[in-house]
Write a structure and sequence with these properties.
about 190 residues, mainly alpha, about 65% helix
Length: about 190
Amino acid sequence: MRKSEIAQSLTQNIEPRQFLRYCFDINNLSPEEALEEETSFGYCSKSVRLLSKILGLRRKTVREWGHNPSFEGMPQHARITCSYALMALSREDLDRIICSDSQAPKITARQFIEEMFLRDLSPSDREKAVSSTRFRGQCFALISKTLKVSKSTIYQWGSDVELSRMPKHYEHTLAYALATYRKQEKIAA
C-alpha cells in the first residue's frame, strides 16, 4: 500500500467521548455502566490530564473545550491527533501514559519526511529522491493528507521541508501518524 493510500485510509475522526472511553477501557461496557464511570468522582480530572498528555497541550487549554467528557469545542486538529493516537498506541502504551508523567511524542515535519520518504534508501537513492523536481510536492501532499489541511496552508508554513512556521501542536499529530503508518505498513507487508 502506497503512503498516500495509507494516509487516505486513516482520515477518520473520533469523538472525544469515544476516545476517552477507549483509553479508560470502558468502551465495552453497557451505556449505563459507561455513563456511571463518566460521572464518577475524578473522571473529569483524569480525562483532562490524559488529553493534555496525549496532545501535548496545557490542561487549561483542554478544559476550555467544553463539558467533559464530550469536549464539544475540541478543535479539528486535536480530533485528528486523537484518531492517530488511538491507532498508534497499544493498550499497554495507554496504561503507561495514564499512570505516569510521560510526554506526548513529537517530531518535526523534516523528521516525518525523512522517515516516510528517505529512511530505507541508500545515500545515492536519497540524493536522487531529494533532487527530484517532484519531491517537495510529494512531501507536502502527504503532510496535507496526514494533517487534513490544504496544500496552500502547508506552503504558508514554509517553502522547504523544514516547514518552520508549522504550528507546534502538529508535531504530535505527525508522531502518532508516523507510528500508525509504520503499523499499517507491517500489516500490508
